[in-house]
């Protein structure tokens, strides 16, 4: 009986929230380059050298169906580079920047209306990865670390909106691409999952990585 009680206590401790803090092999890490899929609308976060014709006039951010578009890669960085060392697993609640690989601009939002849905405009802003405080998002997930198989949300620190897609489609010159915007309510339109990319392995030499 005593042995059974000890076993039950051990199982309870192992299942206790906050236990098992070591990141798994599928953790998303600082410095990784990846594509992000909106799980509701099955499109990937995308940007390109096309500016909005209204609102801020900054570089537009959209969602695309194609899985092989090179303009859908984003690099995971910290609020500043000292807070997100290369290869370190990203924690749930951590502040990050998402830098568009091909243009060097950061995922950004501000108090401009989005062109199609009149939600909050999301743009790409800055030069060579340097923008401003409106480039910072927190990763919202249910465990201790952001795992690749988990659907997560990105909440903007400066304006409290969630990175979202609700399905509106653009016409020329980016016909068929979806509007990306910020919404104040957490819902099924703002879940994202890590997809294709180069993932730096945690707690290892930065030269070592997984390519997907």
UniProtKB/TrEMBL annotation:
Keyword set, alphabetical order: Repeat, Signal
InterPro entries membership: MIR_dom_sf, MIR_motif
CDD domains given in the database record: beta-trefoil_MIR_SDF2_meta
Pfam families documented for this protein: MIR (PF02815)
Cited SMART domains: MIR (SM00472)
Tagged with keyword Signal: yes
Name used for this protein in its record: Stromal cell-derived factor 2-like protein 1
Annotated organism of origin: Platysternon megacephalum
């Amino acid at each position: 009986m005593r042995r059974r009680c000890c076993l039950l206590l051990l199982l309870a401790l192992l299942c206790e929230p906050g236990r098992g803090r070591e990141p798994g092999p599928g953790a998303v890490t600082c410095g990784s380059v990846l594509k992000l899929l909106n799980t509701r609308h099955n499109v990937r976060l995308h940007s390109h050298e096309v500016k909005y014709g209204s609102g801020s006039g900054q570089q537009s951010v959209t969602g695309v169906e194609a899985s092989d578009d090179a303009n859908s890669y984003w690099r995971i960085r910290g609020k500043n580079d000292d807070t997100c060392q290369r290869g370190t697993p990203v924690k749930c609640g951590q502040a990050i920047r998402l830098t568009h690989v091909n243009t060097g601009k950061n995922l950004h939002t501000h108090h401009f209306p989005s062109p199609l849905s009149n939600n909050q405009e999301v743009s790409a802003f800055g030069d060579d990865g340097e923008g401003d405080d409106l480039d910072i998002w927190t990763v919202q997930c249910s465990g201790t670390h952001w795992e690749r198989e988990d659907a997560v949300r990105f909440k903007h620190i400066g304006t409290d909106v969630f990175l979202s897609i609700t399905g509106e489609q653009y016409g020329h010159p980016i016909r068929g691409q979806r509007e990306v915007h910020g919404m104040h309510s957490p819902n099924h339109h703002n879940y994202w999952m890590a997809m294709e990319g180069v993932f730096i392995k945690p707690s290892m030499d930065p030269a070592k990585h997984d390519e997907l």
